[in-house]
Amino acid sequence: MDIYLPIAEVSLDIFVLLGLGAAVGFLSGVFGVGGGFLLTPLLIFIGVPPTVAVASSANQLVGASVSGVLAHWRRGNVDFKMGYVLLVGGLAGSFLGVWIFTLLKRVGQVELTISLCYVLLLGTLGGLMIIESIRSMLRLHRPGAGRRRLHQHTWMHGLPLKARFRRSKLYISALLPIGIGFVIGVFSAILGIGGGFIMVPAMIYMLGMPTSVVPGTSLLQIIFVAANVTVLQAYTNRTVDAVLALVLLVGGVVGARIGSRFGTRLRGEQLRFLLALMVLAVAAKLAFDMTVRPADLYSIASEKG
Amino acid sequence: MNPRSTSVPGKLACRGFVLVAALLIWAPPTRAEALIADLTSHLIAITTGFTGASVVLFGATDGPGDVVVTVRGPDREMTVRRKSRIAGIWVNTREVTFANVPSFYAVAASRPIEDIVSPANAALYRLGIANLKLESEAPAPSVVVDTFRAALEHTQQQAGLFANRFGKVDFLGERLFRTTIAFPSNVPTGTYLVEVFLVRDKDVVSGQTTPLVVSKVGVDAAVFEYASRQPGFYGAIAVLTAVVAGWLASLPFRGA
User: Is B234 in Cβ contact with A242 (below 8 Å)?
Assistant: First the structure.
């Protein structure tokens, strides 16, 4: 059964969309990331214009993150203070991101930039994650590995504006989460992602937050960043398809519930290893697509005249 | 089926066709128009379940001749970009912007255009994709413009938005004709112009113009309207809807 999407201006099979939402929801339930980094490329693949896919994914992400945060909040796994500090940076970053997006759209390089950003981000992160997860899997098999420190101290801990984050058991410079939030805000606006898959590793490895509070806190700030991106995209580019977002959300909720049940059966290292593999696979596919001679060298952008 | 709604060439078309036929046979007008034609529907309504539509155009001529039908959607400015390889990656490098490109263009004729109309007339009445006036906004070498124009025509044809359909106007006897105009699901909205030409001896002897409206209706139209008129509020509502949906979705988790 086809459904006509009023902003994307295409008809797509509603079951394909629901299935897509469910599949991405399943993965996000398993891994605790938003899944936007998979959703946007998949939407483009099934025929949604890239600009609409980016903006509508952000809209879908708002709903997905709300339900995720509520679930984590009930288990007491959200560091609200850290979330708000990240948010300050995130909002500022998303303004810059939407501005860059608008500029790129005018120049005609937005599709390339989206793909390029994805390859760089996913490639780097996937690589780092895979190395880390293999290391920690090996460490588990060594009995006399000894106790690790809570986190490593680096130059980042020498920055001013120190603040105490009780829930995360941290005493660090507020500039650090603000900076991370800012960078992720920029990317989420350009790529239509919440940045969970960048945020989660950054929180664990750069901030040294305990793993238990990471997904909930990351999702908390994603709600606001994604909401901001949605409104800005709707306002400047008119590319938010609320109907598309809602259909995806319905599928996503079902998928996320199955996924989170499935996720509890896997160990942390195995989870991270699988996530890393998936991230690398997406990066490899996108990189491959960019280097292959396109079937049609010409593309058309139309403007209401 | 509601006659105003999307497609259905079948019954309605036949009825209209029979009506015209009956008029011609039983009550021949004293001062005959050279050409009469009409559409089975003047509105293509894009609803939530829209998958494309077709409209039947039927009519009669006052004697032998060929019929050419063109359907033009509202003009758009279109930018064609060409990718080339830079450092192993395919990047958009060159672009040509065409000012007045019909967002939809279909031509149907009883025989190939070049067989029935002189080239000058075909150009004058813009019969056939090749005769559309597509001009580059910025001055560019004609070789470049020509290749980009060819790419534009090709892409639009692939998308079903440009169509040359010669030999697709069917005659019933010498005077009654009909043709079906197909619109894909990605049909642009706006007011279309349907032009019917009667051609004799390579010359256009009569013509008629009928409007056709392609419009979103119902929820989709409301969403689209609101999104373009109140973009800020639309964005806020989209966010709120998602928040509420997310909250509702999390409710069943409470028991678990």
Answer: yes
